[in-house]
Design brief:
signal; 218 residues; binds 2-acetamido-2-deoxy-beta-D-glucopyranose; 9 helices; mainly alpha
Length: 218
């Protein structure tokens, strides 16, 4: 669909999501547990908390940006006679608002959904996709690509931080512990090599599975 991204921008006149810092499960582990591959693991908790903070920040910014653009499109009458649809934005805002209140599995699913939405927005404005003149003009006028570049850069930095945390964590382990958790370190080796935003994100989503396999896809 050549005008896909407009669907995005269209939707955002939505209830302002109320964001507060989410409180994942309390940090109440026994030390025997915090260096094993389970949900009490300190690396797991650290990365999960960082991912929550990061997702809230990025998603809020993304939502703000797209809302602003929608208002400007309306004000400038760039789309006369057209109703801007808004289903996706409503959903986005809802997932965002849900993060703070839910259990961690649900939180993760919501975060994956937000991330997927940001990925598809990134895909939609990609230079590799041929846009109609109308769409291309809007992308340029509202500097949407520049914005997505910034968001993408921040994700890549976040992922790099994750890899670094895993390395620091690995250095704290005994030899046997390291061997026991080798699959995590193998994963990180692959993960840290990936340069493409979309593939890297797919790979990142597997991280939490090493600690707490999550079954319920919707
Ligand atoms: C990555 O880590 C650095 C150093 O701790 C921190 O300043 C920065 O905010 C982190 N970036 C992201 C996107 O999490």
């Amino acid at each position: 669909m050549k005008n896909n991204f407009i669907i995005y921008l269209g939707i955002i006149l939505v209830v302002q999501p109320c964001l507060t810092t989410p409180v994942p499960k309390s940090v109440d582990f026994t030390s025997a547990d915090d260096e094993q591959l389970n949900e009490h693991n300190k690396l797991y908790k650290q990365v999960l908390n960082n991912f929550i903070d990061f997702t809230l920040k990025s998603s809020e910014e993304f939502l703000d940006f797209t809302m602003k653009i929608q208002e400007e499109i309306k004000r400038n009458n760039d789309f006369p006679d057209r109703e801007l649809p808004n289903r996706r934005h409503e959903k986005f805002a809802k997932d965002l608002a849900n993060i703070k209140s839910s259990e961690s599995e649900q939180t993760l699913l919501n975060m994956y959904r937000l991330t997927e939405d940001i990925l598809s927005a990134d895909r939609e404005v990609s230079v590799k996709i041929i846009h109609s003149d109308e769409a291309e003009n809007l992308i340029e006028k509202y500097k949407i690509r520049e914005f997505m570049d910034k968001i993408r850069g921040r994700y890549m930095e976040f992922y790099e931080n994750v890899s670094n945390s895993i390395e620091l964590y690995a250095n704290e382990l005994s030899k046997t512990q390291k061997q026991d958790q080798q699959k995590l370190f193998d994963w990180n080796e692959d993960f840290s090599e990936i340069k493409d935003f979309h593939s890297k994100t797919d790979q990142f989503m597997l991280f939490f599975e090493y600690f707490k396999p999550c079954c319920d896809e919707e």
